[in-house]
Design brief:
Blueprint: E1 5-7, E2 10-12, H1 15-22, E3 27-32, E4 37-46, E5 49-60, H2 67-73, E6 82-83, E7 87-92, E8 95-100, H3 103-110
Antiparallel strand pairs: 1-2, 3-4, 3-8, 4-5, 5-6, 5-7
Helix pairs in contact: 2-3
C-alpha cells in the first residue's frame, strides 16, 4: 500500500515507497532528437516515445567525452556540470537513444548538485 499526501495539488510519497515503485526499472541516459539529454528510470517505451521517472535533464556535462562514458562511469568534473532538478515523471517524444547506466554512473549522476541559475 503506497502512502501519499497531496499538498496544493502536488502528490508526495515517502522515499521508501518511491524506491519500491522504481524497483525493476532500468536507470538510463536518454537522448532525444530535439529536447536534449535526460537521465532517469525508463517506465515504458513505445516507438519513439518513452515515459521516464525520477528524471533530470543533463544540460551540460564536463569530464566525459560521450554519453556512453557517462552511462558507464559518470563524469569526472561534476562541479562544472549543469544537471537540472529532478521531476517525478516526464514523457519524451523523439527518443533516439537509450543507454542503461551502471550503478557507479547512477550514483555519480545522483551526486551532482542541482544546477541553479544565479542572478
Amino acid at each position: 500500500m503506497t502512502k501519499e499526501i497531496i499538498i496544493d495539488g502536488v502528490k508526495y510519497v515517502p522515499e521508501s515507497d518511491k524506491a519500491e515503485q522504481l524497483n525493476g526499472m532500468p536507470y538510463c541516459i536518454i537522448r532525444t532528437y530535439s529536447a536534449g539529454v535526460f537521465s532517469g528510470y525508463v517506465e515504458s517505451r513505445e516507438g519513439k516515445e518513452a515515459v521516464i521517472r525520477d528524471a533530470r535533464c543533463l544540460y551540460y556535462w564536463d569530464g566525459a567525452a560521450t554519453l556512453l562514458q557517462i552511462a558507464k562511469s559518470g563524469v569526472t568534473k561534476p562541479q562544472n556540470c549543469k544537471f537540472t532538478c529532478t521531476v517525478d515523471k516526464i514523457e519524451l517524444t523523439e527518443v533516439i537513444e537509450i543507454i542503461e547506466c551502471t550503478e557507479k554512473a547512477k550514483a555519480n549522476i545522483a551526486g551532482i548538485s542541482e544546477w541553479l541559475i544565479r542572478e
